[in-house]
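Incident log, structure service

09:12 report received: a user says their structure output differs between two submissions of the same chain.
09:20 pulled the input from the user's history:
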Amino acid sequence: MEKRRLGRTGLRVSVLGFGGSEIGYEGASQATVDRLLGSALEAGLNVVDTAECYDKSEELIGAALGARRGQCLIFTKCGHAGGWSRADWRVAPLLASIERSLKRLRTDHVDLIQLHSCGLDVLKRGDAIKALETARDRGLARFIGYSGDGAAARYAIECGAFDTLQTSLNVAEQEPLTLTLPLAVEREMGVIAKRPLANAAMAQRQSRGSYGYEYSRRLQKLDYEFMKRRDAVATALRFTLSVPGVHTAIVGTARPGRFEENARHLEAGKLAAGDMKAIRARWSEVADDSWVGQT
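09:34 re-ran on a clean worker, output below:
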């Protein structure tokens, strides 16, 4: 599998990364996670991305990796130790959360610790950034990053504190192509694309109230020509990984075989310039100011 240099970190990352939200929220068994990660590592994946608030995701990943910890890069996120609705951005709780994550992941450090979608006001106060810098100084993390979108993501780049940016980017979410990615490239930041398949909306229409409904609504309006083809999902994934500056795309799944399927989608390489231009043109024609990053 192709590997790219993650900006100034120098880490070599596989273009596909394993996302840990589904295995946590969907209650995957340990046997399933063992199989998922085992086959992914054997296929050349070396990025595993999770978060403290993804239910038991960190514990499942830590147990699945075991002695194979050295074969991959572990990325996790902090800020919602009490659950998604209970954020805490103070220094001491963040450091305690990071230490708990290490125990769950069965490792003495993570390769990347990320602030998990905190707002612009939190970033500007500075305490949360200080917590991550302290974790790095203590050897709990090799690098620090911000995971989020919009104005906060822009500030995370401008402030110069972070090594990486993880942001939503897909055919139904293109705000970063003008708001953040050009500056991230200029600053040589590592760029991690989340939701490259639009929260499963590329595969099937999402019902109102579901996690992927907003993307599904947008895709209906965009009505891309490529979506009428059998390779629509492959085209969407290739679009995200063809955007200049993107180093890896995180795809979550609790279904064995999905990673191998996505890897096959990338065998054709980057999307042709004409296809990229058509997708961008359609977005510019249809998208309005309300189509901002999805948390």
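09:41 both user submissions now match this output. Likely a transient worker issue. Closing.
09:42 reviewer note: Residues 91-105 form the longest helix (15 residues). Strands lie at 3-5, 12-14, 16-19, 47-49, 73-78, 110-116, 141-147, 164-168, 190-194, 248-252.
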